[in-house]
Write a structure and sequence with these properties.
The chain has 419 residues and is of the alpha+beta class. The chain contains 14 helices and nine strands. Strands 1, 2, 3 and 4 form a four-stranded antiparallel sheet that branches. A three-stranded antiparallel sheet has the order 5-6-9. It is elongated, with a radius of gyration of 34 Å.
């Protein structure tokens, strides 16, 4: 690529840029001044460095490049890419419109966050009026801003802009937030009380079939995540404790979990775990097993026509709003609250945090304690009686003077001096 004076090519009064594009095709545009020709060369060179991406592109123009990078370079899952597309089309594109990516500043990001706080959720197909029309949750806003930050990161990679205005938004400079600091305690209202749980399970017994009833009882009685419960197979459940080294304790093995788009994958922390089963729940599962007579490799919660096909999350969540109404629960809580209910009841009852942590599959007990700090008792609640010191300690008798007189041994005082 070079700039040639037009007079050398029988075109006086102009300056010619002689270059070939990526396909090898020759171009010779002309400009009235040498400065304009140099500016064109700079733009063309910058365009080549960015891999053919327009430096003045908008968010919507940059999306095809993002899709290529997500699939080919970062190798993201299709479910994650689909989630990013929904966020872009639903929130980012409508707000920024034709604004160029290189022109977005921190003030624009703060305006975008303020705009998100005024948005309301869309009415889902099976959402109750309690959930429909509420403002976006803080976690949802964080995901949207995180997606926007990811777009700016790719823009830096393509040399469209030198910085990421959405990164570290609201944080102190040069200080990364620790993993434990990101954990927020579960709100008290997100877990059901024991009477609320009992009313909900009673309503489930009356209005849904046995499969759905066992589904809700399993979530409330083990604390497993809904995706993990859907992925359970009968060979993962040991109802008599005879498998492996269970020592006669009924257990279920959590090995997989259903992700978005009904994709079967690993658990949240990518580790398997064993979960103890309550005797009452074990009896219910045994009755359910005797009734269906499944194969070991069949899903526990499967379609009636095919035991090899797990019930979808949409079907299993469909009766949930009705059960909340029948149980007299006026606040909206998702089906995931049964996991919080299980953990909060155990912790409030004084069960060791280490056991609850193992049941839930948390990385460490610090995570469990931070999530459920509202249910950790600060007083002994009668636990000190388990020291059983009454058998060992002997309290010696202490002589006390009587109110009516007498010495310390209780002998009456002779007031008149007579023996």
């Amino acid at each position: 690529m070079k700039i040639v004076n037009g007079a050398d090519r029988s075109r006086p009064g102009v300056f010619i840029v002689d270059y070939r594009d990526a396909a090898g095709k020759r171009h010779v545009p002309s400009f009235p001044t040498e400065e304009e020709a140099e500016a064109f060369v700079e733009r063309e060179l910058a365009h080549r460095e960015t891999g053919g991406v327009n430096l003045n592109c908008t968010f919507e123009d940059f999306l095809p490049t993002c899709l290529t990078l997500w699939r080919d370079v970062l190798e993201l899952e299709e479910g994650t890419i689909e989630n990013y597309l929904q966020i872009c089309e639903g929130h980012i594109f409508p707000f920024f419109g034709t604004t160029r990516m290189r022109d977005v500043t921190l003030d624009n990001i703060l305006e975008f966050k303020a705009h998100l706080k005024t948005q309301v959720t869309r009415g889902g197909k099976y959402k109750t009026p309690l959930k429909r029309g509420t403002v976006l949750l803080r976690g949802t806003i964080t995901k949207i801003v995180g997606t926007l930050s990811g777009l700016f990161t790719l823009a830096i990679y393509k040399k469209i802009r030198p910085d990421n205005p959405a990164a570290r938004n609201g944080r102190l400079a040069n200080k990364q937030m620790q993993e434990q600091d990101r954990i927020q305690p579960i709100a008290v209202g997100k877990a059901l009380t024991k009477p609320e749980r009992d009313r909900l399970l009673l309503a489930a017994r009356l209005v849904v079939n046995l499969t759905y009833y066992v589904w809700f009882c399993l979530l409330a009685g083990t604390g497993v995540r809904p995706g993990e419960a859907r992925a359970l197979r009968w060979k993962h459940i040991d109802l008599d404790g005879s498998q492996d080294l269970h020592d006669g304790v009924p257990m279920l093995s959590v090995l997989q979990s259903f992700k978005r788009k009904d994709r079967l994958g690993c658990t949240k922390n990518k580790k398997s775990r064993l979960v103890e089963i309550d005797p009452a729940l074990c009896a219910l599962l045994q009755a359910y097993y005797d009734l269906r007579q499944p194969q070991p490799g069949d899903f526990v919660f499967s379609e009636e026509a095919s035991s090899n096909t797990a019930l979808t999350g949409e079907k299993l969540r469909k009766p949930w709003p009705t059960l909340l109404a029948l149980a007299g629960i006026t606040r909206w809580v998702p089906i995931y609250c049964l996991r919080h209910t299980y953990a909060s009841i155990l912790i409030w009852a004084g069960v060791p945090t280490s056991f609850v942590c193992a049941q839930l599959g948390h990385v460490n007990t610090a995570t469990t304690e931070k999530y459920y700090k509202h249910w950790i008792r600060s007083k002994s609640n009668g636990v000190l009686a388990k020291l059983d010191l009454a058998r060992t300690l002997v309290v010696p008798p202490v002589a006390r003077p009587r109110k009516g007189g007498g010495d310390s041994h209780g002998t009456p005082r002779n007031v008149n001096g007579c023996p």
